[in-house]
Write a structure and sequence with these properties.
It is a single chain. The two termini are 31 Å apart. The strands form two sheets. This protein has a three-stranded mixed sheet with strand order 2-1-6, covered by helices on one side. The protein has 113 residues and is an alpha+beta fold. The chain has one domain: hypothetical protein PF0899 fold, CATH 3.30.2320.
Length: 113
């Protein structure tokens, strides 16, 4: 379950940023998680609940922005939404695409006190 290691990394980032701001608590955390990031959200939620206990994020409000996958076809330049890496272009049917959105996995913002 790689979601636990991801949550642990988020806790490390939040702890470091709170320390840099001379804060002791994180009140809110906002994450961007792309649909193509490989994160299984049920596993992430379970890992989050377990990992944040007794951490700086224990009482933080968690907001997750799900970023939909988008791509541009290399052959015909069509822009379209994708659900999986191997989706074909809906215009020309080719699989040579450039993914422009949906792989995100980042801490977007923190509110500390």
């Amino acid at each position: 379950m790689h979601e636990l290691s991801i949550v642990m990394s988020i806790i490390d980032i939040a702890t470091q940023q709170a320390t840099n701001a001379n804060a002791t608590l994180v009140d809110e955390i906002e994450l961007d998680v792309g649909a193509l990031s490989g994160i299984e959200m049920n596993a992430f939620d379970f890992a989050w609940k377990q990992a944040v206990e007794d951490s700086i994020l224990q009482n933080a409000t968690l907001t997750i922005n799900r970023i939909e996958g988008k791509a541009i076809c290399i052959d015909c330049s069509a822009s379209f939404e994708i659900q999986q890496y191997f989706d074909a272009c809906p215009v020309c049917g080719e699989h040579l695409i450039n993914i422009i959105q949906g792989k995100e996995l980042k801490v977007k913002s923190l509110v500390v006190s």
